[in-house]
Amino acid sequence: MERQTLLAVAVANPVILLFRGLPSGSSEGAFLVFTILPFLVLLGALMASFLAVRHVRAEEESGRADAVSATPAGRHAPFLATVVHGVVACLLLGIATTSAFLIAGLPAAGGLALGATLAAASSVFLGMGLLTSQLFRSARAANSVSVAVILTAFLVAGVGNALGTASDDLTRMESSGLAWLSPFAWAENVRPFADDDLSPLLLCVVAAAALIGGAFALQATRDLGAGVIAPRSGRAAASALLSHPFGLAVRLSAGSLVAWAVGAAVVGALATSLGEVIDEVATQNPAVTALLDRLAAEGSMDQGLLITFFVMVGALAACFGVQTVQRARQEEVHGTAEQTLATPVARVRWLGGFLGTALAGIVVIVGAAVVAATAALLARGGDTALLADVAIAGAGQLAGAAVFPVLTALVFTLLPRATTTLGWVLVIAAVSLALFGTLLGLDDGLVSLSPFAATPVPAADGVAWNGGLWLVALTVVGVASTLMLMRRREIATGG
Transmembrane ranges (predicted)? Predict the structure, then answer.
């Protein structure tokens, strides 16, 4: 009965459907899948796409792929090995998930369907990672585009589910046509532990085969080390901007900054423009209308939608910050940092340039989301009282996102080889806690460990400051500690 009530509230609240799964019934397994399946697919998608880029494009950047191609193995061997490696990784992910559900005592058919779903959906994004590795010359660009595609697919499935049709008992939702444009929706419509319908996975298999085949065709025709999309020609002489470490970091990060800012602007616009549409669709069901009225009486619908979307904005900004600091590590490994530091540039100024660019970029990205949310609200003639809430939510996520590049820079000074791994692990863990911790029944104290959940947020009676001051203090102390440690650190070129 408790699960039925929770599902009814979820069906009545489009915000929950945007960032959770597709309700398929109130059985124990179906309810568990509803709460975690999109999250599992998201992790599998990131794993598969990063694996593909790491073993194709990053190997070409390091020169190892060129060395392998000069042997009897040939130029196609690394690509085919990556495909096999990636498919095996996706299968192991599915097997591990199935085993966990079987050990928990849930029905075998549902567990097998869930494992197959994760393996098939992850394979689609393996193919996408292989394709972006062919399109772009750098691993950073390929990873950035891959993440953007994954987040877009996640959002499309969420919006499509929110615009779907609810059953009369409010325990099941049928996806709208929009959702079927996303591999996330293909996975969710398998409905493990409810329907166990594997037919949507045919779409995953066809898409994965098409993407891998397309990537292989491009691999066979392009030059090693080049991308299908050629980079712009550089200037004959460097501009004055490159005479300073900060200018160099800005120049290296400008392209990704634009991409993350555009993504944040889209999310920001949705934060204030989607609620009215979703409310209109949801209220077509009288039972849903009654529940929405009850939720609206608590004064949390618009603010809840805004806060949830701005957690995503904070995550995008944090990803840019982490990526920019990791660029310093890449410069160090590739040897270009050593050339820069051979000039009268001190190590502290050099790292400070990347860290300063990361923090400034976070301001730009969150600012783009705030401007887009404000413009969307004014364009539709919405309640202008929400403008203050937009500013508060944006400022809060600014404080939360700033923590991550600082922590990544601190790792860079202490454990250089762990910079990339720990940087992404921290972001993923924090986003998971903020978006899913409460629904998974985790203690509030544990959830609030995530900087995204500890930010100041708009509340019915003003501002809930939460851990805002602690976030600012952590950022300031982290910056000071990083720069102090960098003064004593030697260059570590080992990859």
Answer: 31-53, 79-106, 112-132, 144-163, 198-218, 248-271, 304-322, 354-378, 390-415, 422-442, 462-486
